[in-house]
Every structure is written in C-alpha cells, then in structure tokens.
Specification:
β1 and β2 form a beta hairpin. It is built from two helices and three strands; from the N terminus they run αβββα.
C-alpha cells in the first residue's frame, strides 16, 4: 500500500490548524497559506483540499531544502 504524499511525517510537521485556505477573487482559486511560512502559498482553482495538500507539499520541500 502506498502512502499519500501529504500523509505521515510530512503532514505531522505542520498541523492543519496552522493552514488558512480561502477563495481569492484575484487568483480565481483557493489559496492556502500559513503564518509559519509567510512567504509560501499554494493555489488551486478547483479545490480547497487540493490547495491545502499542495501547500503541505511545498512546505515539506522547503524543510527538506533547509536541512
């Protein structure tokens, strides 16, 4: 069984409660952000969940690079 990319240890590094997702008229998309990564965001035009999952992936990549 394969794990979803945002599950497991990557997801544990940033709790869902720390991520804010809203519809942005300017972006015409759901935009996910967090005060833990103020310069990072992820937008998805179709799904708030996809915006959150994309944000988690970007945050995980950032942590991997910063190590």
């Amino acid at each position: 069984m394969s794990q979803h990319p945002s599950s497991g240890s990557r997801a544990a590094a940033i709790p869902l409660s720390a991520i804010d997702v809203r519809w942005s008229e300017a972006e015409s998309a759901f935009v996910a952000r967090s005060s833990r990564y103020p310069d990072l965001m992820h937008a998805d035009p179709w799904s708030a969940l996809a915006a959150v999952e994309g944000f988690i992936e970007r945050a995980a990549m950032r942590r991997d690079i910063e190590r």
